[in-house]
């Protein structure tokens, strides 16, 4: 099988790494779906406050594509619908009941799934209200189900800081994962690409183009894998899906039900007993955290420390997030720190790592160690971006709003998460990934 060796990048040596054992959390009183998680979607409610729903019941649909609906991750009562500016739906909160009833669909054997037609398999996924698990490149938005993707990509390796070890998740899920892969094969006219680490528990999966990958973060990013396996050309689109969502699709076909549980990590320097936890989609963060925080003044992040968003204990886990990271919010300025570059015990630097001075885990905090300043092109971005792309030139073309130049420089292959390390390592404190997202939004608006 083909192997990809990523050399550019960086693995953050952050303390609070999660234990490998999976702990079940079942005491959720409420869960929520956040329509703002989905780029380019205009939600319209199907339910109303006080209405009873089952697992998989449709909550809202996209006005731009009414076939795409979002299913409830729990059985219970719609507790509240929260609106933001211009009456945009921000949150749909559901109070759980004791029964956790599910909407049941037809069951299929593994051998029958692969023989299904595209529209038949697609209707099963759309009818179960879980189609938003798919995203497309370019733009990393929910795809149009009527458009046949060139290929479908599944990344079964995480390299982001403190992320889920998918080898642990997949140990007892091979049958469901295989069923999900078989279903994906019916949806595309091209190939289903699966990327794993070498000697993975998923190496026996059939009906896929299997690739292995090694190297530092962002080797696990699906965009990096697409770039190195079968890069995207203008006018093409591919679909991507998380490996745990492939399991959920497999269970839908095999068992006829939507399983809303997922394995996430709760980890970081401020977490007592960090580990892997099985929770419900849209779980409340306070229930996940419990009494595991070691200090009050801490930053809770839904997602990883590079691409996640600042949250609070009262918030809910985003639909596409599989980590809750907690780092210190206590920042102490170092006296004349500029005279001691790259060797402080209180500041993290890429310099000692690049020169192999050791791999000591570092208790990250929210300090930026400086403010925004003029960009000096010293190849800081290029060292951590394993793509055949000129990041500095691309960044400047976006600031200039030069659509043609953005396209020539390969923006359609990019996503903001692929440039997160550029933001982290930038000596000018430039939000590179935020600018990449702005460029993608401009490109999408141009059509």
UniProtKB/TrEMBL annotation:
Annotated GO MF terms: oxidoreductase activity, acting on NAD(P)H, quinone or similar compound as acceptor
Species, as recorded: marine metagenome
PANTHER family: NA(+)-TRANSLOCATING NADH-QUINONE REDUCTASE SUBUNIT A
Domain Na(+)-translocating NADH-quinone reductase subunit A C-terminal: 263-311
Keywords for this protein: Ion transport, NAD, Sodium, Sodium transport, Translocase, Transport, Ubiquinone
InterPro entries: NqrA, NQRA_2nd, NqrA_C_domain, NQRA_N
Any one GO BP annotation for this protein: sodium ion transport
Coiled-coil region: none
Protein name: Uncharacterized protein
NqrA second alpha/beta domain: residues covered: 122-256
Pfam families named among the record's database cross-references: NQRA_2nd, NQRA_N, NQRA_SLBB
């Amino acid at each position: 099988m083909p192997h990809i060796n990523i050399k550019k990048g960086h693995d953050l040596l952050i303390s609070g790494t999660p234990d490998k054992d999976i702990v079940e959390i079942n005491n959720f009183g409420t869960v929520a779906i956040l329509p703002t998680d989905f780029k380019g979607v205009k939600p319209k409610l199907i339910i109303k406050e006080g209405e009873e729903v089952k697992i998989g019941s449709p909550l809202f649909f996209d006005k731009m594509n009414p076939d795409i609906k979002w299913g409830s991750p729990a059985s219970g009562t719609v507790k509240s619908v929260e609106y933001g500016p211009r009456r945009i739906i921000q949150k749909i909160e559901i109070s759980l009941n004791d029964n956790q009833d599910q909407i049941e669909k037809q069951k299929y054997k593994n051998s029958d799934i692969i023989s299904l037609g595209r529209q038949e398999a697609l209707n099963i996924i759309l009818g179960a209200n879980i189609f938003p698990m798919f995203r497309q490149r370019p733009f990393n938005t929910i795809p149009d189900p009527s458009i046949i993707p060139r290929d479908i990509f599944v990344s079964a390796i995480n390299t982001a800081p403190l992320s889920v070890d998918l080898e642990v998740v997949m140990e007892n899920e091979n049958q469901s994962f295989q069923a999900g892969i078989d279903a994906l094969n019916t949806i595309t006219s091209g190939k289903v690409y699966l990327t794993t680490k070498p000697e993975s528990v998923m190496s026996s999966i059939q009906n896929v183009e299997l690739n292995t990958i090694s190297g530092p973060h962002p080797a696990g990013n699906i965009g990096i894998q697409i770039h190195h396996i079968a890069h995207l050309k203008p006018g093409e689109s591919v679909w991507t899906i998380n490996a745990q969502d492939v399991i959920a699709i497999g269970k839908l076909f095999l068992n006829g039900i939507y399983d809303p549980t997922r394995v996430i990590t709760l980890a970081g320097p401020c977490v007592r007993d960090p580990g892997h936890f099985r929770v419900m989609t849209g779980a409340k963060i306070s229930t996940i955290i419990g009494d595991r925080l070691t200090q009050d003044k801490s930053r809770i992040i839904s997602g990883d420390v590079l691409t996640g968003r600042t949250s609070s204990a009262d918030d809910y886990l985003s639909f596409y997030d599989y980590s809750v990271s907690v780092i210190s919010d206590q920042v102490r300025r170092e006296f004349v720190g500029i005279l001691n570059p790259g060797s402080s015990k209180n500041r993290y630097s890429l310099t000692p790592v690049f020169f192999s001075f050791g791999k000591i885990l570092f208790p990250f905090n929210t300090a930026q160690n400086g403010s925004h300043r003029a960009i000096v092109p010293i190849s800081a971005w290029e060292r951590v971006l394993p793509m055949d792309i000129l990041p500095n030139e691309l960044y400047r073309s976006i600031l200039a709003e030069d659509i043609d130049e953005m396209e020539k420089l390969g923006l359609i292959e990019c996503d903001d998460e692929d440039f997160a390390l550029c933001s982290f390592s930038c000596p000018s404190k430039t939000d590179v990934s935020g600018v990449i997202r702005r460029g993608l939004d401009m490109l999408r608006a141009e059509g």
